[in-house]
Design goal:
The strands form 3 sheets. The chain has a 6-stranded parallel beta sheet with strand order 1-11-8-7-5-6. It is about 40% helix and about 15% strand. The termini are far apart. Helix 2 packs across helix 10 and helix 6 packs across helix 10. The chain has 10 helices and 11 strands. The protein is of the alpha/beta class. It has 2 domains: about 80 residues, 3-Layer(aba) Sandwich (Rossmann fold); about 120 residues, Rossmann fold (3-Layer(aba) Sandwich). The structure holds NADP nicotinamide-adenine-dinucleotide phosphate (NAP).
Length: about 280
């Protein structure tokens, strides 16, 4: 194997320890303990685990968290009412509504109801617009985690050819703006891209956020490229990324594994965002 393995678990722990130290200093300086409010509608077991992990991460970082579990049949007005009250509650710094929501609820309306200053998922139109126009705001956690990994690895982004596979609002599009903000030359591929392998082979930095297990193979990768695999695909053979790790690791200069790459960064960046929101007086 030629590639360096980028250890997301290790980097995420460092980020979380850094947040814990900054929270301690913030509170010592007279700030209120940063508080994250989570909202979950229904009892989806996977969502319950995600939410529980976020509460544990808050506790480890010295932050408080409050959970609002609502029944599956909750109406849209009731949910929006709760979000509006959390949005104006001075004791709450960050609001996270765990998706997906049941079908009677429009997820777009839910996102729009969140106070942008408390939008720790970075998905409100205000924060999307701030990122798109290169201004400071709260950035979606997974793309922010990708950038953190690249920085930690010392990858030169200025002038680099960056290719992103995937254009979702959650991952691909925010990454475009983050990488443009760092002066990379950015290309975005999607399901209609012709010659995906050819475009990907131009990349100094290749980021896969597709949701198709092992789509990106050795013929998609330029020798020495940095490859970041956002994919998390449950298959009969277990959790797989969007990148064929064994094949690509022979060619890439550095690569993230799945699991243990981008995944742990998401929750670490949620902690960063919650502290940022608290500092801004969310
Ligand atoms: P998504 O909303 O389904 O978007 C997938 C994107 O990939 C779309 O832009 C789609 O193109 C493109 N695509 C699909 N098939 C393709 C193909 N054969 N060739 C080229 N492009 C193709 O997915 P997402 O939410 O961005 O998530 C992507 C992956 O990241 C998933 O595996 C997800 O589980 C994972 N994820 C991980 C984390 C984490 O914490 N590690 C967080 C979020 C997501 P079109 O736009 O043309 O349809």
């Amino acid at each position: 194997m030629a590639a360096t393995i980028i250890d997301g678990k290790k980097v995420s722990l460092e980020v979380r320890e850094g947040v814990a130290a900054q929270v301690a200093a913030f509170v010592e300086g007279g700030g209120e303990v940063p508080t994250l409010a989570t909202v979950l509608v229904g009892a989806d077991p996977a969502s319950e685990i995600y939410v529980a992990n976020k509460h544990r991460a808050c506790e480890e970082a010295g932050m408080a968290s409050v959970h609002h579990g609502l029944p599956d049949g909750t109406s849209q007005p009731d949910l929006l009412g709760l979000i509006e009250s959390l949005s104006s509650d001075a004791s709450v710094d960050g609001i996270l509504v765990q998706l997906p929501v049941p079908e009677q609820i429009d997820p777009d309306l839910v996102t729009r109801a969140i106070n942008p200053a408390k939008d720790v998922d970075g998905l409100t139109p205000t924060n999307v617009g701030l990122l798109a126009s290169g201004r400071p705001g709260l950035v979606p956690c997974t793309p922010a985690g990708v950038l953190e990994l690249l920085d930690h690895q010392g990858v030169e982004l200025e002038g680099a050819e960056a290719v992103i596979v995937g254009r979702s609002n959650l991952v691909g599009r925010p990454l475009v703006n983050l990488l443009l903000g760092r002066n990379a030359t950015v290309t975005v591929c999607h399901s209609r891209t012709r010659d995906l392998a050819g475009v990907c082979r131009r990349a100094d930095v290749l980021i896969a956020a597709v949701g198709v297990a092992e789509l990106i193979g050795a013929d998609h990768v330029k020798p020495g490229a940095t490859v970041i695999d956002v994919g998390m695909n449950r298959t009969e053979d277990g959790l797989k990324g969007d990148v064929d790790f064994a094949a690509v690791a022979e060619i890439a200069g550095a690569i993230t594994p799945v699991p243990g790459g981008v995944g742990p960064m998401t929750i670490a960046m949620l902690m960063v965002n919650t502290l940022t929101a608290a500092r801004s007086g969310g």
